[in-house]
Write a structure and sequence with these properties.
- By secondary structure, the chain is of the alpha/beta class.
- It has 2 domains: 3-39; 62-244 and 288-481, 3-Layer(aba) Sandwich (Alkaline Phosphatase, subunit A), CATH 3.40.720.10.
- It has 14 helices and 17 strands.
- A hairpin with a 6-residue loop joins strand 13 and strand 14 (434-436).
- Helix 9 (245-266) runs antiparallel to helix 10 (269-292) and helix 12 runs parallel beside helix 13.
Length: 483
């Protein structure tokens, strides 16, 4: 028996085996849980995904994730703690620290002086959310937001912490959130990537790696496509001089014929992925210039995002580009903004960071809402961990720094199925420990998948003899924030 015939034989056996199991499962669902059977009737319109049906009715069709790399200081932005200012300069009580580990950057300090924030806080909106003066535009949309103030993570340093929140593991090699979404749900726009990545240009800080939006052990066609500022938003997409679009089409057709012959011989799914990627690249040659061209945006929209909206590669321009991608039904758009790792000179550093992201972050939520897209677009804003209540290094009357703090940090969410105008969780008076409703990273990711119609325990991929998922073997849905 030839290799192809043998594979076909196995495929038939596999089909009948799966069919019998599927019929039995459907029968059991109908007998014991009719609501589960009804959930399977919600068809997934995405192309190329493994899920023909959503696990349950989705609240969001798409997600935009504004990732603040470096760890924004929660007590200087959203977690108001007047006790810190009252006890400014005092030693952090041992009863608060409770012997918890410190990084090597402040672990050898003879003193851990409490550093109260230098910034004023006020309550905003009907929800009464506390927001720092550093974020006046975000404060203006407080009633559209859900603040989670009790997030915690396992990692204390940047690389494992960022890898953990993006892929569900501190060890590199797992698929990212966007890759899992593309693998499960596929794309609803065949001319654009389902997962796009935008990075603010000219920013120092902790390095970012392509594995943060990579496909890991999933097929390579599920990885994020990075957009860049400048003439070519996507590298290696344009035809070289002298090569017309028709010549490119003819070349791809011939190459794909060879790929299909090789696939018939080897039955290697990576060959199919290669074909899919080359076809997507060809379509992107026409779609990317159109989506990246903001000349058709009216002035009042540019003004909404701020003066940097027309500066390609800035955070404001990336937020505007993100909206243009989202309204074209791109499934996942992720923005990375570096520079939040303020071990020293925090007042000056965080002020500059907020000036870069505050207006555009709020504008994106406002713009989506005005266009009727916020109801089914999930917006996420935050970093990989928080900062310490004590000062790293010398504390002065005008200056301080903060070390990494995985025990608690704040993120905010909006749109797609999120309960707006609320805050969840509470930290102690020093923003050092969680005293109410702790939320783990796996819980957050389980909830993001849930809002997009996916049961995090059921979206799995078998690799090297084990079934993997984004949330590993953990994760609980945070029902409190689901509208």
């Amino acid at each position: 028996m030839s290799h192809a015939a043998y594979h076909q034989h196995l495929t038939r056996r596999h089909f009948f085996g799966r069919s019998s199991l599927g019929l039995g499962t459907a029968a059991c669902a109908g007998l014991f849980a009719p609501e589960l059977a009804a959930a399977t009737e919600v068809e997934n319109p995405g192309l190329g995904g493994t899920l023909q049906f959503y696990h349950h009715a989705p609240r969001a069709k798409r997600i935009v994730y504004l990732f603040m790399s470096g760890g924004p200081s929660q007590m200087d932005l959203f977690d108001y703690k007047p006790q810190l200012t009252k006890h400014n300069g005092r030693e952090l009580p041992a009863s608060v620290r409770m012997g918890q580990r410190l990084t090597g950057m402040s672990g050898n300090q003879a003193s851990l002086p409490i550093a109260g924030t230098k910034f004023k806080f006020q309550q905003h909106g009907d929800s009464g959310a506390w927001v720092s003066e550093l974020m006046p535009h975000v404060a203006g949309i407080a009633d559209d937001l859900c603040f989670i103030k009790s997030l915690h993570t396992e990692a204390i340093n940047h690389d494992p912490a960022i890898t953990f929140i993006q892929t569900g593991s501190q060890i590199a090699g797992r698929p990212s959130l966007g890759a899992w979404l593309d693998y499960g749900l596929g794309s609803t726009n065949e001319n654009l990537p389902s997962f796009c990545v935008l990075i603010t240009k000219n920013k120092g800080g902790q390095p970012l790696y392509s594995r943060l939006w990579g496909s890991g052990f999933l097929p390579a066609n599920h990885q994020g496509v990075q957009f860049r500022s400048g003439k070519d938003p996507v590298l290696y997409l344009n035809n070289p001089p002298g090569v017309s679009r028709q010549r490119r089409r003819d070349m791809l057709d011939k190459i794909n014929e060879l790929h299909r012959l090789e696939y018939a011989r080897r039955l290697d799914p990576l060959i199919e992925s290669r074909i899919a990627q080359s076809e997507m690249a060809f379509r992107m040659q026409a779609s990317i210039p159109e989506v990246a061209n903001i000349q058709d945006e009216p002035q009042h929209v540019l003004d909404l995002y701020g003066p940097d909206a027309t500066n390609p590669g800035s955070f404001a321009a990336n937020c505007l580009l993100a909206r243009r991608l989202l309204e074209r039904d791109v499934r996942c758009v992720q923005l990375f903004h570096k520079g939040w790792d303020q071990h020293g000179n925090l007042p000056g550093g965080i002020t500059r960071q907020c000036q870069e992201v505050d207006q555009a972050s709020a504008a994106l939520v406002t713009d989506l809402k005005r266009r009727g897209l916020l109801d089914d677009t999930l917006v996420v804003w935050g970093g990989e961990f928080g900062r310490t209540a004590y000062s790293q290094g010398k504390l002065t009357a005008t200056n301080y720094g903060r070390d990494h703090h995985p025990r608690c940090f704040t993120m905010w969410l909006a749109g797609g199925g999120i309960r707006s105008g609320m805050s969840l969780g509470q930290t102690d008076e020093y923003s050092y420990n969680i005293v109410e409703r702790p939320i783990a990273v796996h819980d957050l990711n389980a909830t993001l998948l849930h809002l997009l119609g996916i049961d995090h325990e059921r979206l799995v991929f078998r690799y090297q003899g084990r079934r993997y998922r984004l949330t590993d073997v953990h994760g609980e849905l945070v029902r409190d924030i689901v509208a």
